[in-house]
Write a structure and sequence with these properties.
Blueprint (H helix, E strand, L loop, with lengths): L8 E5 L5 E7 L5 E2 L2 H8 L14 E5 L2
Antiparallel strand pairs: 1-2, 1-4, 2-3
Length: 63
């Protein structure tokens, strides 16, 4: 049986360290968030039609 996840809410940061949004851990390897949060975090237009690429920083919020 799997252990319950200790924390499932994440803060997503820009490359300058500012919080840009939140996400939720949905599996051990996948976080769900909105496309505009990823765009904000990597510094591209939120209206882009292209698939964003780049790395983002995040941390888990202890509940």
């Amino acid at each position: 049986m799997n252990k319950p996840l200790e924390s499932s809410i994440v803060r997503i940061y820009s490359n300058t360290g500012n919080v840009k949004g939140a996400g939720f851990l949905v599996t051990q390897k996948h976080i769900l968030t909105c496309a505009h949060v990823v765009a904000y975090a990597i510094g591209i237009s939120t209206r882009t039609k292209e698939i964003p690429s780049g790395e983002i920083s995040l941390n888990f919020i202890k509940c």
